[in-house]
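Sequence design from tokenized structure. All designs in this work follow the same two-part layout: the structure record, then the generated sequence. An example of the structure record is given first.
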């Protein structure tokens, strides 16, 4: 196997859960009904990742730009996140899942922040599926925070600016210690990252599904995994012909 060959199954899948509002609007409903329906899709995604023995699943739940939405919609989304964690936490804990939040905690209300922190603390030592929930997350802000942390260390004399490299930046991101995503899935047909894991996605495979997030199913997850398995990941290198690998 060459250094650039990857197994057919990703270790880390990240999902941009897009299309709740459009799902609701298309049915003449308020946007909150789309978000509520989207919670059911979250359950299906977690179950699908667990059953596929994925090691890490990152879910983009609320971006730092989503604060621009109407106040009542933001309040409802935060309420749904907290309720979902309270209802599912014990079940997921029994299934040996580990929860982690990435994003800026400052600015989050006590209810949703408390739920996220409780999930992290309760499941800290679990060794099964690692579920990473991105809340109040923006990749540009994350990179800026990492740069600021390194600048403070340089000013304090703990590091030299000349020592700063990619590994040092990676180690100060919210995702420090989490492998980069192998596969990023986005629903709703939109084809962009929307300020999500931009540093970490340098070599991620991107799969864009036409379904809206409330429609996401086991079949949707399987479709994305099948597409991933068809990709050839080279990481800037060249995949050698089979004869070169076997020596024949």
């Amino acid at each position: 196997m060459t250094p650039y060959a990857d197994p057919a199954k990703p270790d880390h899948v990240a999902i941009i859960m897009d299309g709740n509002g459009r799902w609701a609007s298309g049915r003449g409903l308020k946007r909150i009904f789309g978000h509520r329906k989207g919670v059911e899709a979250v359950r299906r995604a977690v179950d699908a990742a667990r059953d596929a023995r994925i090691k890490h699943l990152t879910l983009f739940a609320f971006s730092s730009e989503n604060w621009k939405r109407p106040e009542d919609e933001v309040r409802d989304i935060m309420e749904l996140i907290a309720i979902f964690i309270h209802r599912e936490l014990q079940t997921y804990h029994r299934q040996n899942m580990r929860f982690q939040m990435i994003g800026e905690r400052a600015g989050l209300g006590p209810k949703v922040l408390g739920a996220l922190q409780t999930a992290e603390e309760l499941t800290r030592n679990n060794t099964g599926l690692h579920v990473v929930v991105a809340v109040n997350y923006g990749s540009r802000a994350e990179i800026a925070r990492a740069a600021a942390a390194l600048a403070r260390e340089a000013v304090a004399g703990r590091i030299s600016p000349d020592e700063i490299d990619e590994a040092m930046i990676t180690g100060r991101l919210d995702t420090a210690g989490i492998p980069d995503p192998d596969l990023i899935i986005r629903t709703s047909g939109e084809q962009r990252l929307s300020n999500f894991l931009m540093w970490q996605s340098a070599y991620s495979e991107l799969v864009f599904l036409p379904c809206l997030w409330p429609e996401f199913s086991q079949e949707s997850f399987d479709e994305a995994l099948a597409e991933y398995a068809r990709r050839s990941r080279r990481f800037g290198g060249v995949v050698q012909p089979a004869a070169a690998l076997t020596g024949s």
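The first helix runs from residue 20 to 25. We note this feature because it recurs in several other targets discussed in the main text.
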